[in-house]
Every structure is written in structure tokens, then in C-alpha cells.
Design goal:
By secondary structure, this protein is an alpha/beta fold. It has nine helices and 17 strands. It is 27% helix and 27% strand. It starts with 5 loop residues before the first strand and ends with a helix. Bound molecules: flavin-adenine dinucleotide. This is Thioredoxin reductase.
Length: 306
């Protein structure tokens, strides 16, 4: 095999990509991580729920992971964006935005998802600091506080019930007419959870802490934090271009171990799970790294047979 050909190029250096790199480095594999450093959780100051790292800043988490990877000399990392991939004679040619080309036997997409926020003035200031997407990530810090739930998707009712576990002082803002059934509305009433369908004019915050929700009818409602149902889209459409299919929620479809319908292409983390969380993303990367190493062992073994 040409010495300049990588065993694995990992597109994306979040927890899923970095975890795959670690197990592949420990498996003596030539790995290149290409990442343009725009993780999904960039807006948040603290990440929770990763054993031994509960409350760590996402920036620090990446720094620590990259420090650990330095020990594995066959693993390299560059800051760049992958803009094109094609497969020729069983090898992937990878082109980056800075104009470089790399070749690899296998490619892992660890590219994650992006959240689209409601188009409400002031929302961007509170997202990730006092309004969050996931109660498992940030519910404990906001337990029993005055919370807002923002959203109007089909899963809204289930989401409200979930958030109500962390605080009973809940108000639901659908920013327009909602599709909850009369039975569901009645259940909210019984749980004393106000449902506000009036459009929102803006949200106001102090130092990124949500303070007020201002409605278009002039009402001002005091809240100290909240949770939001975002719309999500893939960070990278390259797997689609290669022929990897998506499910109805826009997640790339994978089989076990991150395998896709395209030979040599693997997908891990949020890009296939939707919202893996840091520990789930890292677990995905680890599992796929092991799978790829065992495939490469097989391929090399068979090549040397007469
Ligand atoms: C506000 C917020 C708070 C959160 N808090 C928590 C928490 O407390 N605990 C928790 O467990 N989870 C939390 N999450 C979820 C967590 O961030 C994700 O589940 C996790 O980051 C997924 O990891 P990943 O490796 O799949 O993707 P990401 O971490 O998003 O990494 C993907 C990487 O791929 C790179 N990339 C994408 N396309 C390309 C390309 N073409 N070329 C090169 N690089 C590319 C991006 O720059 C990015 O660095 C939170 C999410 C949000 C939005």
C-alpha cells in the first residue's frame, strides 16, 4: 500500500471523531482528522453527563482529547473543511477547502448536526447559556426554576412532560397556533402549565440569562431559563452525495458499527443518532474505530495470501 495513503480519514473532530481517532491510533493506524472546529455545542459553557468530566467546557474537552492523541504519532489533525470526496479504484480522494488532497482506505463522517433556532429576536443570546435543547444535559442546573418551553413540533407534548420532571413552574410558548389536541391541552391545565400561543416579539436577557419573554400583545412574562425544540440539519451533505441514505428525521442511516450502504464509508455520532450526547458520540466513535481496524486487519491478511 502506498505510504501516503491514510488508513482512515476522519471528517469532524468532535467527541465521536476524536474517540474513533484514539482507538485507531492505539491500533497503529495512520489517521488524519480534518475538522473546521464548529461543534454543535459551541454556544454552551459547560457540558454535563460524561463520567469524570461532568461540567467541563466543550473547548477544554476537545483540548484534553487532542493532548491525549499527541502520544499516538500515527494520528494527525488539521483545521480545514472537507468539501469533496470521491472513490477511485477502492481509494477515497478527499479534497479540502484550503485546496489539499488526501487519500484514504476508509472514511468516517463524524460531522454532527446543526440546530436551527426559532426566528425570535434575542434568542441567539440565550441559546446554550440559559435556554437549552436537552434536559439531560442542562435540566439539573435549572431544577425547580421558572422555565419556558419553546416549541411547536409534533413531539411537543412529550417534550413538555419531560421538562416538567425538572420543574413544575413551566410555561409553554408555541409562538403561534399549536397542534395540541383538546385532551392534551386539558392535561396541561390539570398540571397548571400555561400554554401561550400568542406570537413572541422578543426574548430579553441579562448576561445571556433569559429574563423576559415579550409577547406581541404587550404581555411581559418573567422566566429564568428554558428549553427549546430546535430543527436540526446535517452539518455535511457529503455522505448524501456519496449515496448514503437519510431517515425521515434527516439522520444518516447506518447499520451496526456505523457501517453505511457505501463500502468504506462510516458515520458516527449526531450525524446518525440525531442527538447522541458526548458520551454516546464517543462510544460510537470507539465502536466504529474497532470495526474499521478489524476490517483492515482482514484486508491486509488476505492480500498477503498466495
Ligand atoms: C447547546 C447544546 C448543549 C449541549 N450540551 C450537552 C451536554 O451537556 N452533554 C452532552 O452529552 N451533550 C450535549 N450536547 C450535545 C452534544 O454537543 C452532541 O451530541 C455532540 O457534540 C455530538 O458529537 P459529534 O462528534 O457527533 O458532533 P460535533 O461535536 O458537533 O462535532 C462535529 C464536528 O465536525 C466538524 N465538521 C462538520 N462538517 C465538516 C467538514 N465538512 N469538514 C471538516 N469538519 C467538519 C465540525 O466543525 C465539528 O467540529 C449539547 C448540544 C447543544 C446544541
Amino acid at each position: 500500500m502506498n505510504q501516503f495513503i491514510m488508513d482512515v480519514v476522519i471528517v469532524g473532530g468532535g467527541p465521536s471523531g476524536l474517540s474513533a481517532a484514539l482507538v485507531l491510533g492505539r491500533s497503529l493506524r495512520k489517521v488524519l482528522i480534518i475538522d473546521y472546529n464548529h461543534p454543535r455545542n459551541a454556544s454552551t459553557k459547560r457540558s454535563h453527563g460524561y463520567l469524570t468530566r461532568d461540567g467541563i467546557s466543550p473547548v477544554k474537552f476537545r483540548q484534553l482529547a487532542k493532548e491525549e492523541l499527541k502520544k499516538y504519532k500515527t494520528v494527525n489533525s488539521i483545521e480545514d473543511a472537507v468539501i469533496d470526496i470521491e472513490k477511485k479504484a477502492g481509494i477515497f480522494n478527499i479534497t479540502t477547502k484550503k485546496g489539499f488532497n488526501y487519500q484514504s482506505r476508509k472514511v468516517i463522517f463524524a460531522t454532527g448536526m446543526k440546530d436551527q433556532l426559532p426566528m425570535i429576536p434575542g434568542f441567539i443570546d440565550v441559546y446554550g447559556t440559559s435556554v437549552f435543547p436537552c434536559p439531560y444535559c442542562d435540566g439539573w442546573e435549572h431544577k425547580n426554576t421558572k422555565l419556558a418551553v419553546f416549541g411547536n413540533k409534533v413531539e411537543l407534548f412529550t417534550y413538555i412532560k419531560l421538562i416538567s420532571h425538572w420543574s413544575k413552574d413551566l410555561m409553554v410558548f408555541t409562538n403561534g397556533k399549536c397542534n395540541l389536541s383538546d385532551i392534551q391541552k386539558n392535561e396541561l391545565k390539570q398540571h397548571r402549565i400555561p400554554l401561550i400561543e400568542t406570537p413572541i416579539q422578543e426574548v430579553q436577557s441579562v448576561l445571556s440569562q433569559l429574563k423576559k419573554v415579550i409577547l406581541t400583545d404587550g404581555r411581559i412574562i418573567r422566566r429564568d431559563g428554558g428549553f427549546v425544540m430546535t430543527n436540526t440539519v446535517q452539518s455535511s451533505n457529503l455522505p448524501s452525495k456519496l449515496g448514503v441514505e437519510m431517515d425521515e428525521k434527516g439522520r444518516y442511516q447506518t447499520k451496526e458499527h456505523g457501517l453505511t450502504n457505501i463500502d468504506g464509508i462510516y458515520i458516527v455520532g449526531d450525524a446518525t443518532k440525531g442527538f447522541a450526547g458526548i458520551v454516546g458520540a464517543a462510544s460510537d466513535g470507539y465502536e466504529t474505530g474497532i470495526k474499521i481496524n478489524s476490517e483492515l486487519v482482514e484486508e491486509n491478511w488476505n492480500k498477503n495470501l498466495k
